[in-house]
């Protein structure tokens, strides 16, 4: 089934909306404790409990509008539901904080496995959007694999050694900025190995 095109700003809002809602909500409730059905929950856990259905809702809307979800989106939703749910159920923030580590280890591990086989799994999911020569894909895949492992280490350092507020800021802005800067620095590689659509058709 071909992916339907939607307004890119709408898609961005649906993908980033739950993260921004979590950040704003945590900022307002971080020092509060809520008693629900006789159990006490921190503001962080309350926002985690709200984040899960919100992410499911926005992901469902993306799927309904485009007819497609990437494997990365599906894996992210599954890990959020599992580890976010464990955090709320066990009242232990560590599960949700460790979730980005597992996501980046998973993605890095999958790409790394492909590299060991001499293949770029990244190319399989991005080739249509970013046509490049095979050599370019292998270089980009090696870089992204190392980058994902680096993000996993960074997340572990932050959540284990800094406050919850520092981790939320890092998760909301630090990881997003790191991803943006990484792809910005790959411009020369994409220019060198990029394939023009006219060339590809020929």
TrEMBL record:
Topological category with respect to the lipid bilayer: Multi-pass membrane protein
One GO CC term on file: plasma membrane
Top-level lineage group: Bacteria
Membrane-spanning segments: 12-29, 41-65, 72-90, 102-122, 134-154, 166-184
Keyword terms: Cell inner membrane, Cell membrane, Membrane, Transmembrane, Transmembrane helix
Main location: membrane
Coiled coil spans: none
Classification via InterPro entries: YciB
Localisation: Cell inner membrane
Free-text function comment from the UniProt entry: Plays a role in cell envelope biogenesis, maintenance of cell envelope integrity and membrane homeostasis.
Similarity field: Belongs to the YciB family.
Name used for this protein in its record: Inner membrane-spanning protein YciB
Source organism per UniProt: Rhodobacter ferrooxidans
């Amino acid at each position: 089934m071909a992916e339907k095109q939607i307004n890119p700003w709408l898609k961005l809002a649906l993908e980033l909306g739950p993260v921004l809602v979590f950040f704003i909500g945590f900022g307002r409730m971080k020092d509060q404790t809520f008693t629900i059905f006789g159990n006490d929950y921190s503001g962080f856990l309350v926002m985690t409990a709200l984040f899960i259905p919100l992410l499911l809702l926005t992901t469902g809307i993306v799927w309904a509008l485009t007819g497609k979800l990437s494997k990365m989106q599906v894996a992210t939703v599954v890990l959020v539901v599992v580890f976010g749910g464990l955090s709320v159920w066990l009242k232990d923030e560590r599960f949700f904080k460790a979730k980005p580590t597992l996501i980046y280890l998973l993605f890095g591990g999958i790409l790394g496995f492909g590299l060991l086989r001499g293949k770029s799994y990244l190319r399989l999911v991005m080739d249509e959007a970013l046509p490049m020569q095979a050599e370019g894909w292998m270089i980009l895949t090696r870089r992204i694999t190392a980058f994902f492992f680096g993000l996993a280490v960074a997340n572990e350092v932050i959540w284990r050694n800094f406050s919850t507020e520092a981790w939320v800021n890092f998760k909301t802005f630090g990881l997003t900025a790191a991803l943006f800067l990484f792809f910005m620095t790959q411009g020369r590689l994409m220019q060198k190995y990029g394939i023009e659509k006219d060339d590809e058709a020929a």
